[in-house]
Amino acid sequence: MPIVRVALDVPLPTLFDYTVAEGIAVAVGQRVIVPFGKRQMVGVVMECATSTEMAPERVKPVKEVLHDSLPLSAELLDLLRFCSDYYRYPIGQTVLAALPVRLRSDKPVVGKPVLSYRLSASGVALDMELFPKRQVVQRRILAKLAEQPCNLAQLKSLSATAGKQLKVLVAEGWVESFTGALPSTGSGRTASSVQKHAFDNAHTLTGEQQQAVDAVTQAQGYACFLLHGITGSGKTEVYVHLMHDVLQRGGQVLLLVPEINLTPQLEQYFRSRFSDVNLVSLHSGLSEGERLHNWQQAQSGAARVVLGTRLAVFAELPDLALIVVDEEHDSSFKQQDGLRYSARDVAIFRASQRGVPIVLGSATPSLESYHNAQSGRYRLLRLTGRALVKARLPAVRCININQTVMHHGISENLLREIGQRIARREQSLLFINRRGYAPVLMCTGCGWLSGCKHCAGKMVLHLNDKRLRCHHCGYQLHVPHACPSCGNAELHPVGSGTQRVESVLQERFPEARILRVDRDSTRNKRAWQTMREQIHANEVDILVGTQMLAKGHDFPALTLVGVLNPDSALYSSDFRAAEKLFAQLAQVAGRAGRADKPGEVLIQTAFPDHPLFRALQAHDFEGWAASQLAERQMVGFPPFVYQAMLRAEGKDATEVYAFLNQARTAALELRQPVEILGVVPAALPRRANHIRAQLLIQSAKRSGLQQFLRAWQPLLDALPAQKLRWSLDVDPLEF
Ligand code: ADP
Ligand code: ZN
Ligand code: ZN
To answer: How far is the centre of ligand 1, averaged over its atoms, from the C-alpha of 206 (Å)?
Structure first.
């Protein structure tokens, strides 16, 4: 009896064996419906075998083989096997998590697989001289298909009525449809056959840009490039030219970006540069149907460019020839639950598996990537000047908050500068990484603070709906009229968030048009889009916002950036806090002075001489990174060690700590060359009434850590943990 080994979405580290009835063909990568316990589930065939170790009477048959989408490629399955092993996550859950939701359900996929079209034999034999001249659209379709097979979406770019006319051509027998990938490299799209597409070559590349493009296009097989270019240096333009080159050679491009907010913008931009190239996006903002459709477009080879957030790293791309990871330092490439993967790292593995180049782009590379570039594992490409000669880097200055008059968190100097910008009809941006009105409410009588009763954190004051809200667990309360502890009626907001900054500005500049951009003001899907349009139309004088505003946006009228309270990151317990702050401030600073007007950045701080601010002022990423790396090396932090974090949480503290201590004992008994730290409370030791603690493991070698984790995991699985949630996080970013 033939046997298939199936990946199922269950939390067990194994595949499951099923028999296949006589006469049913089933291949690796196909989706099947199988019985599991009392249920039936969708799984993916990972292996075909002839025998099983299970007792024959216990092996059940596959119920159905699904033919509603193309089988997954061996390459993708290998990638997922690697992820499952590397991130210590069950293989079945890894495989199913990589698929669009529709492909995970046991209901047949609504909608058919994407069809492609080509000329039939009689279509090829048609004499176009004799073909009716007035059938313009039909002629266009035939001409296009004579060049290359296409899918409907590509044909629709020829004419709005292409769908209807295509039906006619199919009915006449001149065109035929087929499922499956459009011919890929080796079957039509070879390196020598140049693929034509429209390309808007908007700019002549600068010397540095050209060098970067040449280095990547000349790469043979796998190579990892770190494109380090200051904001506005034209990294996007480099990506565009690389894409052009790959598209011409018949390859597909995967472009990963950190923010779902940025994808529509970039999508539009790339479409404008490659007007007839089939480009799809993949991100969590799409409906299930759209996501499936785009995924299948990539899988069939119809889509030539895939633009997406981290989940797109698992898209099927039969002709993949280049991967670009933009803003590679961004922590949103790391998934924080389930399969805790880093899309950047998986992308690098994928490129090496496939033997194609990968480009990591950033103005402030992660110290991991920068270190790899310095040690020669990656190749460093630098863009040191701004692409537009007129655009200069902004001047950065610090305002010592201990030596100036402050108005609810905003210094007099900064307010004056804002006033001047308003008079000149230029925009200002105030950057503050806290939403709400104030991070905590305090009683002036007894010192009571608005703590969350479910968490170890504080409740944030939101004045517009008069509530205290916990940003960790979502718990909320009406603002009390008097202190719950002593009855005193005088309660004071301490510190500021975006709402408070907004109201201070409103008071000082009653005429000014102020726009607050944070998660509260952009909950509605279209809100952010509308706001961007307002900013571009210069209908806004002052922007107040969180990191949402820092990333990748181009606001030409913006000439002043004020940074309100960056200091807490300087003495954070998270060793990456300073690295993140530098990246964030360099990003916001990059928003200022993009056009012909010089920009200025004012940082409010109690530590104006701190090396971080010094480096920012000098626009000296290199110096800053070198000093950070030296420090990390001295104390033994990443990238000089590799880490894994075991986290546990539960209602009962004793149980949580008992679990972690047992895990630690088991780790010590393995006697492997890894460093096993102590069990400690998490940075937020209590959240939603759950006690949280953690145990860190580190090793000087990645392979050493991996070997240890492979041995440790089964011991963890065997520990009693009924009322606990625990997880292993390999290469953790959060502490
Ligand atoms: P980055 O992604 O590095 O922040 P962008 O790619 O957005 O930079 O480029 C910044 C600006 O410079 C954009 O307006 C872009 O159109 C322009 N630009 C890029 N390359 C060139 C070039 N070679 N010549 C003229 N303008 C350019
Ligand atoms: Zn009180
Ligand atoms: Zn809470």
So the answer is: 10
Sheet with 459-462, edge to edge strand ranges: 459-462, 467-470, 476-478
pTM, rounded to two decimals: 0.87
Ligand 1 mean position to 385 CA, how many Å? 10
Length of the chain: 735
Measured in angstroms, how far is the CA atom of residue 386 from the centroid of ligand 1? 8
Bridge partners (DSSP) listed for residue 650:
691, 724
End-to-end CA distance of the chain: 51
Q: Is the peptide bond before 639 cis (omega within 30 degrees of 0)?
A: yes
Measured from the alpha carbon of residue 488, the closest ligand is: 2
Q: Is 602 helix (H, G, I), strand (E, B) or coil?
A: strand
Spacing, Cα 696 to ligand 1 middle (Å):
42
Please choose, from the candidates 420, 397, 399, the residue with its C-alpha nearest in 3D space to the C-alpha of residue 410: 399
Going by CA atoms, what residue is nearest to atom 27 of ligand 1? 387
For residue 516, give the amino acid letter: R
Give the number of whichever ligand sits closest to the CA of residue 446.
2
DSSP string computed for 92-161:
HHHHHHTS-HHHHSSSPPSSPPPEEEEE-HHHHH--TTTS-TT-HHHHHHHHHHHH--EEHHHHHTT-TT
Atom index in ligand 1 nearest the CA of residue 229 equals 3
CB 347 within 8 A of CB 254: yes
pLDDT in tens, 211-258: 999 999 999 999 999 999 988 889 999 999 999 999 999 999 999 999
Centre of ligand 1 from the C-alpha of residue 308, in Å = 21
Minimum CA distance residue for ligand 1 atom 19:
234
Ligand 1 pocket by Cβ (under 6 Å): 203-206, 209, 229, 231-237, 387-388
Q: Are β-strands 467-470 and 410-411 bridged in parallel, bridged antiparallel, or unpaired?
A: unpaired
What pLDDT is attached to residue 536?
Answer: 86
Tokens of 94: 């890894």
β-bridge pairing 115-119 and 64-65: unpaired
The pLDDT tens digits of the residues spanning 666-699 come to: 999 999 999 999 999 999 999 999 999 999 999 9
Write the residue with the smallest CA distance to atom 24 of ligand 1.
203
What pairs with residue 33 in β-bridges? 42, 64
Which of 236, 242, 265 is the pocket-test mutation for ligand 1 (most atoms within 8 Å of CB)?
A: 236
Q: Which ligand is nearest to the CA of 484?
A: 2
Q: Cβ(215)–Cβ(223) under 8 Å?
A: no
Q: Is 349 exposed, middle or buried (0-12, 13-18, 19+ CB in 10 A)?
A: middle
Dist CA 399 CA 607 (whole Å): 9
Q: Which ligand is nearest to the CA of 272?
A: 1
For residue 146, give both structure tokens: 């004579």
Residue 308, CA distances (Å) to 95, 240, 260, 325, 550 in order = 19, 16, 8, 10, 19
Q: How far is the CA of 390 from the centre of ligand 1 (A)?
A: 12
DSSP letter string over 209-249?
A: HHHHHHHHHT--S-EEEEEEE-TTS-HHHHHHHHHHHHHHT
Write out the two tokens for 150.
């296409």
CA 489 to ligand 2 center in whole angstroms: 8
- Atom in ligand 1 nearest the alpha carbon of residue 363: 3
Q: How far is CA 683 from CA 340, 450, 453, 537, 692, in A?
A: 19, 19, 17, 43, 9
Tell the residue nearest (CA) to atom 20 of ligand 1.
234
pLDDT in tens, 101-137: 999 987 767 555 567 788 988 898 888 888 988 888 8
Residue ranges near ligand 3 (ion) with Cβ within 5 Å: 452, 454-455, 470, 472-473, 475
CA–CA–CA angle 629, 632, 637 (5° rounding): 130
CA 618 to chain centre: 30
Spatial CA neighbour of 594 closest among 426, 451, 709: 426
Compute the distance between CA of residue 398 and CA of residue 337 in angstroms, rounded to an integer: 38
